[in-house]
Structure formats: structure tokens, C-alpha cells
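call fold(seq) -> C-alpha cells
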Amino acid sequence: MDRVERPDSQLETVEAVFEDLMGALSRMKRGGLYILDSLDALSDAAEMGREIDKATFGAGKAKGMSQLFRRAIKKVEAKQCHFMIISQIRDNIGATFGRKYSRSGGKALDFYASQVAYLAHLGELKRKLKGVERTIGVQIRMKCTKNKVGLPFRTCDFPILFGYGIEDITASIDWLVTNKQHRRTSLSLDDLKAIREEAMHVEVDGADDIRQLLATNVIAGWSEIEKSFLPPRRKYND
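ret:
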């Protein structure tokens, strides 16, 4: 997978993103990753040339995003490029029905995206050491509201530790225990709880082997649960 980082690249408009994406795709072989962070920081060329007191309500940006996807989606697919867009949600003021939140950029993103995931902040993770308490991370819940490559409307909870990232050992143990799948592993419930407590603070001995063991059992347990919700009857013959 090709990976080119340009931290000094400050793209300001949707048009600039399109040009930069096309340039990246032309240099890319097969398989790549392009991350746009973030959608809310973008404007459009017409708004940049307009007076500050002339409101546009994001119409030009939404139109530009729709054009970007229509022109770029086939090239992104041909290169097998993963195009990730990060954005923030905001309150949808005056909404009586439907979603109570909205996102800038119009509806084109939801229409063309293969997956749409929303993240919610559940709380802070704290640790007390030598009488001093600090926030060491946050607990996150993710819900996949659209999924064209799997089953939609699934949720998962996981901790993110500052300076480290997602603590996958803790997340896997929490899922196995919550869904009563911990018996699949060769570890006892007490051992899993001890590993979980250790993983939140220090490096676990044999972390790679434990991570692989937990991941294998999470995948097996998840597949078994999801298959149990499918209708037992068949509509079409093989």
C-alpha cells in the first residue's frame, strides 16, 4: 500500500482536495490510503472570493463535494484506494423528526460512502498514581450506520489511550465477557480480568500472542452470534 504523508499540505477548498486526490491517484500503484482531515475545515472557491458577511449556508461546498465524488469515485475504485473522510457532527437546530444532528458537505458523502461510522464519547479513563490522578484516555462507542461490505447498524465500544491509540486487548476482553464468549479462550475469567487491568497501564507479557488469541475468538464468537439472527429458512435453492 502506498503511503505519502504531507503534513505541510493545508488544503483549503473542495477543488484543491480534488486536484490533490487526482495527483495522488496518478502516482499511486494498486492499493493506497488517502485521508481527508477534516471535511469541516474545507470551503469552496466561490466562498473564498466572497465577502465575509455574505452567507452561503454551505451550498457551494455541498455542490462541490457531489461533483468531486462523481468524478473521482471510479478512479478511486480502479486504484483500490481507501478514501477516508473525517468530519464532525453538529446539532441540527429546529429538527422535529429524523436525526438531531447534521454534518457539513451535503448528502453526497452518505450516498457514495461504502461505510459511515459515527463515534460517541462515553467518558474519561482515569488512573491514580502516587496520589496524583490523571485522565489517560477516553471510552468511545462507534456505530456503523451504513455498511455496503458487511452488516449495518452494529456498535462496538473501545478505549483510546492518549499517546498510544486503541487498546485492542481491553476492547476484545470486554466484548468476550459482555457477550459471554470468554469460555472460548483457554484463559479463565480471572486471568482475562488481570490481563485487562494490566493492559490499561503497562505492556502485557506476550501481548502479540494474547492479542491474536483474543482476536481469533472475537471473530468466531461474532460470526456465530450474527449467523444466529439470520432466518433459518432459505428463499432460493442452491
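Residues 207-228 form the longest helix (22 residues).
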